[in-house]
């Protein structure tokens, strides 16, 4: 039987301690779990190799025999009773550069340990892999909580999109990841919410910001402006002599606060003044007159 390098299979050095062996085994077992690659025979084969390598190296007594006798480690007691070492060319030290192995790994493992040990290997429980998904939304999608069905790994999962969830926020759906092995627990599903920028409203947490254009006359003389909010349009009084860049707060007209029912942020309105263009002769005349009056009063 050809030498099997268990250290190489677990990707660890011969000096690895028990904790390192355990950590390497768990990492690789998750990577090559058959449930994650059901159509890949190589993954299943690798998974069996990992189980067998772990069974040998995680047992201090068997590991000692393996390190000393290599592929003949299961005959260690026979060699010791006979009072001699196996041929050096067959030892573990001389076989570290072996390029592989042949035969059915499971049959080999079972022949060394018997049915009971093989059964323990097959009964090892593994938690399923966590899954990640992205959900693309627009601002109005998160103004109130709503149900939505997602398809993940061919399965429909009904979730609640919480009101006020933010761009880039991640929520965990427990137990909706990949199934575990040998009755191990399922992994979790992590959903990242990606909310597109709104063409009108700029969001900052639960507050939103909007710029509203008013004409020169309304800015100078005062009047009303129709303001678009998240739940419809409202009229606002514009005070006389409103300066460009003036910011006004509409309390409670912002985004719903995440996980706080009935609580909302604020809406901040910034006024931009639009200057008239294509002036008529009469308008030019009147603006000229106003300019003269203004200059006279300042002097």
CATH fold field value of the largest domain: Helix Hairpins
Q: Treating each run of at least 4 consecutive H or I residues as one helix, how many helices?
A: 8
Mean pLDDT: 81
User: What's the level 1 CATH class of the largest domain?
Assistant: Mainly Alpha
| Beta fraction | 15-25%
First-residue to last-residue Cα separation: 110 Å
Radius of gyration: 37 Å
- Which architecture of the largest domain per CATH? Orthogonal Bundle
CATH superfamily of the largest domain: DnaJ domain
Biggest sheet: strands side by side, in what order?
6-7-11-10
Q: Label the overall shape.
A: rod-shaped
Question: How many beta-strand runs?
Answer: 11
Structural class: alpha+beta
User: How much helicity do the residues have?
Assistant: 25-40%
Q: How many discrete domains?
A: 3
Largest sheet: 4 strands, mixed
**Which sequence of SSEs, written as H and E, runs from N to C?**
HHHHHHEEEEEEEHEEEEH
Brief description of this entry?
The chain is built from 8 helices and 11 strands. It is an alpha+beta fold and 299 residues long.
Give structural notes.
The structure is a single chain. The protein has 299 residues and is α+β, with helices and mostly antiparallel strands. It folds into three domains: 6-122, DnaJ domain (Helix Hairpins); 131-195, Urease metallochaperone UreE, N-terminal domain (HSP40/DNAj peptide-binding domain), CATH 2.60.260; 202-298, HSP40/DNAj peptide-binding domain. Helix content is 32%, strand content 23%. The strands form four sheets. The chain has a four-stranded mixed beta sheet with strand order 6-7-11-10. Strands 1-5-4 form a three-stranded mixed beta sheet, with no helix packed on it. A hairpin with a 2-residue loop joins strand 2 and strand 3 (155-161). Helix 2 runs antiparallel to helix 3 and helix 3 packs across helix 6. The longest helix has 18 residues, at 105-122.
């Amino acid at each position: 039987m050809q030498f099997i390098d268990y250290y190489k299979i677990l990707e660890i050095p011969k000096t690895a301690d028990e904790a390192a062996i355990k950590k390497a085994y768990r990492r690789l077992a998750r990577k090559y779990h058959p449930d994650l690659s059901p159509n890949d025979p190589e993954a299943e084969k690798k998974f069996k190799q990992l189980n067998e390598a772990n069974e040998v190296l995680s047992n201090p007594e068997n590991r000692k025999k393996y390190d000393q006798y290599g592929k003949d480690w299961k005959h260690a007691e026979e060699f010791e009773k006979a009072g001699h070492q196996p041929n050096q060319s067959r030892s573990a030290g001389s076989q570290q550069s072996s390029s592989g192995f042949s035969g059915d790994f499971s049959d080999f493992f079972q022949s060394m340990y018997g049915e009971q040990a093989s059964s323990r290997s097959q009964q090892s429980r593994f938690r399923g892999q966590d899954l990640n998904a992205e959900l693309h939304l627009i601002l109005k999608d998160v103004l109130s909580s709503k149900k939505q069905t997602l398809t993940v790994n061919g399965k429909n999962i009904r979730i609640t999109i919480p009101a006020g969830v933010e761009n880039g926020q991640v929520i965990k759906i427990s137990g909706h990841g990949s199934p575990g092995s040998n009755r191990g627990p399922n992994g979790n599903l992590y959903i990242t919410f990606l909310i597109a920028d709104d063409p009108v409203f700029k969001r900052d947490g639960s507050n939103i910001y909007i710029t509203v254009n008013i004409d020169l006359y309304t800015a100078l003389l005062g009047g009303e402006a129709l303001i678009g909010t998240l739940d419809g349009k409202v009229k606002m009084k514009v005070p006389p002599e409103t300066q460009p860049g003036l910011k006004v707060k509409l309390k409670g007209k912002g985004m719903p606060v995440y996980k706080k029912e009935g609580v909302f942020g604020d809406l901040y309105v910034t006024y931009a003044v639009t200057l008239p263009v294509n002036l008529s002769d009469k308008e030019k005349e009147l603006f000229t007159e106003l300019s003269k009056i203004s200059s006279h009063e300042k002097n």
